[in-house]
User: Fold this.
Amino acid sequence: MPELPEVETVMRGMQIALLGRVIQTAIIRRYDLRWRISADFSQRISGRKVIGFRRRGKYILMRLAGDLSVILHLGMSGRIVLDSDKTPAPHEHVVLVTDDGKRCAFVDPRRFGMIDVLPTPMEDTYRLLAGMGPEPLDADFSSSTLENGLARKNASIKTVLLDQKIVAGLGNIYVCEALFRAGIHPETPAGTLKKKQIRLLHGAIQSVLTEAIAAGGSSLKDYVRPEGGLGYFQHAWKVYARKGLACPDCPGLPECEGVQHITQAGRSTFFCPLHQGKG
Assistant:
């Protein structure tokens, strides 16, 4: 599933193409996505100007004139295709056509994504966004904020960081990479981390996300950037999907057994036991 850097990249591509344009019409080819698209979706947004964008966690919010917002989640296989050909692509379920004739298509083979419209003032109370944790790249996301979120949590730090109520937008890839950078074992109980470890983790989360956004995200399975290019951050992975390969921080050390793999809460975790030793 696309994580924060991929969603941010998609949002920025949409912003370049759509900001200031008027949505002439919205073509709905399938209403039955993860949640059914409302019958009046096209009527509500047609004729409105796109005035802004916002990302909240893994959701994209496109703000329209008249205090309306379109909310989009890519799901497992969803992607945005900008200025797409007028011939519908396979699994092209929603198409926004702008006043300059451009097309913004939502393609989703598995139909786990969603799209909806809501009043802009109600964004933060929308059922999928209410209760979401802080944004990890916002200026007010401090080490203390993270510490408060982890306090008294007995579950593993890997599992806790995947909880969108603790930190918004984090997913499997970037949690694995951040824990590696911070030298924290993924099975460590979250509430037992020391202040120094939390400071290191806070910095690692922000640095790995910032670098991934600069690289256009990680291209894995269905993800491509809106203009059709691939993200490149997968070439910078230190541990994710590198089971059995040498740890980049333990070069030549005979006691290092390389990158290991375990399953936590049904998700794959990759780590180096030596570099990220418990304790």
